[in-house]
Amino acid sequence: MKDFLVLTLFLLISPSFALYFHMGETEKKCFIEEIPDETMITGKYRTQLYDDSMNDYLPASPGIGMHVEVTDPEKKVVLSKFYASEGRFTFTSHTPGEHHICLYTNSSRWSLFAGGRLRVHLEILVGEHANDYAQIAAKDKLTELQLRMRQLLDQVDQITKEQAYQRYREERFRHTSESTNTRVLWWALFQTVVLLCTGFWQMRHLKGFFEAKKLV
């Protein structure tokens, strides 16, 4: 069973989102996110098994693996990897458009003792929000001012990418609209020609009929 959760994310307004959802045995959850090209995406997740004795979800679920698969708008696999019960995954988009982010467990054995219930917490960070600036500052030995400048430059770069992606979407929409209008025009012309031909044929047929009956 494959359940698609379609999330239209406007990156300038909502550069990240966090949620949790439940997965059943052999179930696959997919999210669709529109991403500009050359944009880094980081996903953080955590799984929780249901405990019937506690009537609640456990804080952690060791032994449960999670498979993450990401495909780009051209259906090419960008990322396909098994992870532990808790972790993070990162990928960079190379094609603008809708990316499918799918998650499913690597085993169904957990359903035997979890009542078939597994809760997954997921957080997805887009663009500069996916950067760990504390780690960057420690690695590059940046001062607070330099780090702030780095963050501002990353934000400007992400805004530029988003604007380019919006122009790409507008161009694609305009092309689709022009193509649709052209097809509608040709269809209308075709209908007009068929109507004229039908009328001409009917007039000749009626004329021949009246002449045969010597009514004219």
Would you mind describing this structure in some detail?
This protein is α+β, with helices and mostly antiparallel strands and 216 residues long. The protein has two domains: 112 residues, Jelly Rolls (Sandwich); 75 residues. Helix content is 38%, strand content 34%. It is built from three helices and ten strands. Strands 1-3-9-6-7 form a five-stranded mixed beta sheet. A hairpin with a 4-residue loop joins strand 4 and strand 5. The N terminus is likely disordered. Keywords: Coiled coil, Membrane, Signal, Transmembrane, Transmembrane helix. InterPro entries: Emp24-like (IPR015720), GOLD_dom (IPR009038). It holds the Pfam family EMP24_GP25L.
Q: In a few lines, what is going on in this structure?
A:
Residues 1-18 form the signal peptide. The protein is α+β, with helices and mostly antiparallel strands and 216 residues long.
Write the layout of secondary structure elements.
Elements: E1 2-6, E2 16-23, E3 28-35, E4 40-51, E5 56-57, E6 66-71, E7 77-83, E8 86-92, E9 97-105, H1 110-113, E10 118-126, H2 133-140, H3 144-212
Parallel strand pairs: 1-3
Antiparallel strand pairs: 2-10, 3-9, 4-5, 4-8, 4-10, 6-7, 6-9
Coiled coil: 135-162
Membrane topology: Single-pass type I membrane protein
Signal peptide: 1-18
